[in-house]
Structures are given as C-alpha cells and as structure tokens.
Amino acid sequence: MEAYIKPRVLRGFRDSLPEEETAKGRLIAILENTFRLFGFVPIDTPVLEYSEILLGKSGGETEKQVYRFLDHGKRDVAMRYDLTVPFARFMASHHSRLYLPFKRYHIAKVWRGENTQRGRYREFIQCDFDIVGTDSTSADFEILLVMVKSIQALGIDDFRIHFSHRGTFNRLLKRLGLEEKSFEILRTVDRLKKLGLRKLKSQLEPIAGDREVDCIVNFIEPEESSEKTIEKLIGQAGGEDTDTLRLREILKLIERLDLEKYFSLDPSITRGLDYYTGLVYETYLTDQPGLGSICSGGRYNNLASLYTKEKIPGVGSSIGLDRLLTAMLEIGKLEGSENRRALLVLCLDEKYLDYYHEIACALRDEGVAVEVYPEKKKLARQFQYAEKKKFPFALICGEDEREKGTVILKDLRTRESYADLKPQDIAHQVDKLLATSQTES
Amino acid sequence: MEAYIKPRVLRGFRDSLPEEETAKGRLIAILENTFRLFGFVPIDTPVLEYSEILLGKSGGETEKQVYRFLDHGKRDVAMRYDLTVPFARFMASHHSRLYLPFKRYHIAKVWRGENTQRGRYREFIQCDFDIVGTDSTSADFEILLVMVKSIQALGIDDFRIHFSHRGTFNRLLKRLGLEEKSFEILRTVDRLKKLGLRKLKSQLEPIAGDREVDCIVNFIEPEESSEKTIEKLIGQAGGEDTDTLRLREILKLIERLDLEKYFSLDPSITRGLDYYTGLVYETYLTDQPGLGSICSGGRYNNLASLYTKEKIPGVGSSIGLDRLLTAMLEIGKLEGSENRRALLVLCLDEKYLDYYHEIACALRDEGVAVEVYPEKKKLARQFQYAEKKKFPFALICGEDEREKGTVILKDLRTRESYADLKPQDIAHQVDKLLATSQTES
What we know:
With 441 residues, chain A is an alpha+beta fold.
C-alpha cells in the first residue's frame, strides 16, 4: 500500500470553498466600489518585510504572534501582521511621489500566530482605508461617511458608529495626575464591552486610585444626548480645546447631513492601540452586537515617524471583513442567485461537441454564463450537476435537434421545456423567463 | 538626532503604487468575468502550509527556493510557491463535497526565493484555472477556448497558442529506447526558445546519442500545416493512438469554431514540469515574443495522487499576470481615463464643508466619483491635486454660489466653466460634456 501524505491544513488556517470565496468577492467588490466613489485608490505592499520594519514600533505581545524567520540570505524577515505598519513604511518610501492628501485602500491578508482556542484565525483579511497628509475635520468626517456608505452599500442599515476623541480623555487623565499611566488606562477602558462596568472598575483601581476611577467611570458614560455628552466632556477635561472643537464640528456635519441615527458620541471608546492621537471609533450592528466592532479606526498624526522626519498626519478605518462576511452569510445577503443568466449545455452525444461549444460561445458573447457538460454521462447525473451549481436553465440538443438546427431550452426552476428554439433566440428566451419569474416573485 | 529605520523593502519584492494596482485590478476583473462566463468558480487556500504538503512532490530546485521555517509551535511550514500543489491538496481534502467536473480559478500571490539577477521577483501573482474530474476532449478544448477568450477580452487579438501532446513525444522516446531519460529530454527540449536549435542539439547529444538527437530534432519541427504535422507525429511515434486521436479531435474543434489563426500544433512544446500527462501548451504575443509565454499549462491525470488514492484527472492553464500587465501597460491598454465620471469639489471656505459633502453624497448616489478637497489651501494647489489625480471636472462654490444655492462646474480638460448650475443638474451636465468629448475624439 502506498503511503499518502495526509491532506491537512495548519491549525488556524482554512480553505475558502467556492460559495464562500464568491461571497467574499461580492463583498469586496461592493466595498471597492464605495471607496472608488470617494476617490480612494488601491495599493499593495509585500507580504514579507524586514522584521525591523514591521516590529520597530510594537511591543512584546505583537512580537510573539508574528511569523518571523531567517530567509535564504539570512535576512531577518517577517510576514505582515497588519496593514498599518506597512502603510507607514510605504508613505515614508513614496510620499514625495504621491499627491497629498493621499487616499488609499488596501484589502489583503495578514498573519498572526494567535491562540486559536479563542476562535481566532491565524490568517485573515484586513480592509483598511485612510486619508493621509491632512489633519482636517473634513477628512475625519469623510472617513466616517465612507464607513456609513460602505455598510449601507452592503444592504445593512441598522448599525451605529460610536466615536470619541483621545485628546479629550488624555486631558482628563492629565487633570487627574494620571498622565503617565494614560495608555494603560485607555487600554483597560477599551475592554469595557468585554469586562462590564464592575470588572472594569476593579481593574482600574490598582492603576488609577479609587477617587480617580470614579471620575473616569463618570467620564466614559454617555449622556442622553450628544449635546449633553460634549458639555460634560468639556467640563471634565478642563474646558474647550481643539479636541472638543473638532468633536463639535463633526457633530454638526453629522446633523447637517442627516446621519444622526448612525452615530453616538461615546467617551468609552478609546481603541487599544497607541498610535491614535485624535478621533477614535467603533461600529456595531444593532442585531448582532456579539459580533464585536465591524469597522474601527481613528486619527493618528505621527504615522511614519519611525521611518522619516516627514510629518504625515492621517485618519483611517479598518473593516473586519471576516466578521462582516459571517454576518452577511448568516442573513443570506450574499447568496448566489438561481435567477441569473446562466445555462448548462447537456452533452447528449460527444459528436455534437462542436455544435455545443459554438452555441456556448455565441451565448457568452451576449453575456450569458454557459457551461458545456464535457462528457456523455447519464442525463440524471448531468441534471444533478446543474442543480448543484444552481443553473436556472439547461440546453438539450440530440440528433433530432442537431438535424433541424434547433435546441430545447429547459427551465430547471419550473421544469418547463421550450422546444424548437433557434440558437440565436436562446438569450432572448432566457431573459423573458427570468423577467417573468422576477415579476412573479 | 533621532535614528530612523530605513524604509526599504526586501530585494525581489516591491510595492504596488495606485496606478499599477488599479491596472492590475482591471486586468483581474476582466479575467474573472471571462472565467465566470465559462462557469469557473473562485477558491482560496492558505499561504502557509505544512512543508511536507508543499514539498512532497518537488525536487531539489524547488526546495531551495521555498520560504520555509519553523512556526511558534515548531511546525515545519512553508509559503506556497505555486497554486497547483495547494490545489491538489485542496481536491484531496474536499473532492467528496465538490461537484465534479469541478472548474475553479485561483488568483493569488506565491513566493520563490529566486535569483533576482534574472529580473525575477520573489513575490508574484499566479492566475490558474483548471477543470478537474474529467479526462475529455471537451475539457481540453474548453481550457484552450478560455485562453483565447481571456486574451481577446483584454483587447489583444494577435497571439498564438502552441500546443502538443506529451503522450506522442513519450511514444517517440520509447521507440528510440530513451524511455528512462524522457523527463530529462522533455525538460531540455522545453528550453528550445532560450537555447536555439544548435545549442539544444549539443545539450541533447550527451543525453540521447547522436542518431537519436536527429530523430528528436526532426520530430519537434512543425510542418507547414497542422495536418502534415500530425501525420508526421503519427508516423514517428509508431502509429495512431489515443494521444494523436485526442490531438485530431482538438484540431477539428478548433477548425469548426473558426479559431485556426490562434493555434499552432507545435511538437517542440513539452513544458518543464513532470506532472503533465497529455495536452501541453504555451502562448506567445506576436508583437512581443521576447516576453515569453503569457499563458501555459496542460493535462495532468494524477493531480492529487500524493494525498489520496482517488484518481482526479485535470487540465488547466496559468496566466502570467505580471507579464501580461507589463505588456498591457506598455501598449496603454489599462490606463486611467480622463473621461470618467469623476469630480473634485474645491474647498473655498471650510464653513461650507457641510454643503460640499452634501453635494458630494448626492452625486455619488448617481454613480459619480466625487472627492471633497478637505482644507482651504491655495486654489492653485487644489487644481494641481485635481490634475495629478486626472479629474476631468471640478466644482467651485464660494460665498456667492452658496447664497444662490448654485455651483460652478469647471471642465478641467477644456478649462471652460459652467456657472449658475443647480446641484441636482451637475450629473447631467457632466454626462453631457463627457458625451460631447466622446463624439469629438
């Protein structure tokens, strides 16, 4: 007996089967279309980079998760673990050739050797879009707007973007004498949704002290309206400043464009990453809060500071493509349709293959997706294939039809047959049947 | 002075800037559309796999080039170096869940630590499409047809697919008593285009012997017509057999579908890979033969034999996406158009940002790509930005226009301005101007 290699995949990795890959393609196409309508352009960067480039900025936790090794030339290399660090390096490399403000999107895989027991994958897709080269209210607002329009374009209207400003929170912490612990505190507060308020308090106390924790907890609680929340923030952070002014301007734009129902000013939003300097935000689907944030980001004003003295301010957001895909597959939004212009030519006799392929070519020229079943197998098997691939129509052509130069079109949804059809009339008949079923359904 | 990390990329790797990435996206979209019209579906597989999976089948040369390392769990892993081996593993894993014949395409990056001095990249995109689960003339022909239609869909009509059959060549070698050296000989003949006939002969002589080399050289020379070539092959291979019958059937289909100008029966085509068992082919652009083959492949009837006892015959082809992209950028086929429905809203005063964004949103709903310049910078700078990003139109709206509730549309191609336009009439005016310039050009 021959010894076979077991066809397994690494833990935390997975194949993408056609249904999923097709759905993913549809999702990405919708997002790309939205990005392009806003003037964003695509870029790509290498999967492998020098480890010092990718890890220069990160702490121990990241480093442990990164796939890192020595290549053939003994270079210390690593696989990218996000799209932000490569983008920073990209901007440092190319800023003089690019027009600023530069608006890019990047949809690509990243790798992290995370603990798979938490249901995490070690290979996943990120989808980032950023505007760099400007620290302006308009850019902040535009990123929020792209988020709204992207999610709407996916057919989802019931979601909410929670946002706040790092600067305001930092002012509070400074006032409380906690400036040096600010990142530790922001990171703890970032876990509020996971911990709940009580656990959060008990975790904050050893860091911040009892009285200060009460101030923090009071600060992060949203009031009944954005107006009241911002008044509170101004009060507790020590007065109006550029951060609260920016928040006000954004609130005004949200109101003017009639988008209030999609936004909450929520001071508990801090984001766990240290590079954010301004606005920060997360997005939750109302029906599936357990999914976590499906789109998050913020403003960072020192993007490329590790690689260049050039100051490159930016604001961006990242869509959790895998989460969104899961959500959309669950609600059936990306399913393949049985009402598409698609057709299987059955193989009744291999001597008619030329005729089958000729008809198929002509139909494809009219935009109909056509397959020719490649062998003379039992018809039951060929029909089964059509069903598996959700073909709405089949073409049947045996000796009689070949002699007359006609075909039989079979509507596999209704099981009706249409005989004596001329090849050049098939596309029209298909469209007629599709239109009828559209009207009926 | 602060020490910056030099923003460099690894040798053999490169960033993809927006122009290139956009062109690549267009190219891929065209190919995917063709694949889908033929009923091919997309899949994806992990970038990292167990090394034994990826390397089980390959010889020393491949092994040296593969990025291979121990991961966090001390597993011996490697980055995929092609899409064929992962596909074999994929079929072994999933064949029972998939409908056969299964037609998939896979467009994804692969990595090889090749010598960069030969102008090779270490990270590049492969684009494979295959039909598995059937050893039929129809499937062989359909792959050839997809190649023709894909290249035509890219706007290229001047190309030729050279094809032959491994089985016929193997029969000749068996007749010459060279059966055991057949792979070595096929691999050497595969380099004919690089070596030229004289060098090929001198390289073949020590392997095959003088008299045999003459037979081989005579065999691989195409005759003046496919008819004559196939007669010669039958004669020299020792009579008609399944391989020559398959070639005849394919020639017949090519003729019936009027595709002769795209094909040459060329017995010098052998392909350098050992898994091919039947038809093999390569494609050359008539105007750019130096580019090498832009689309190659063949039939392999033991695809997944390393991983399963299941027999899975297949036929497939691989498009050299990077080569094709180079060719198409050179002939300007994928350039961004200055005649697209796109528009930059200039920022004359930041207090009108709500108005600017409102207009932009409404226009995007009509499918016009719109950017709002985010800050009040000098107009010259804003126009420069419009020019860099090839915007055909700009919208100007200052105090007067805001009061009247109108805008000025500027055609940046002709420098004409259209004042007193109502926001809801902009899209129509844009389309009118685009239609006019279409007619004129």
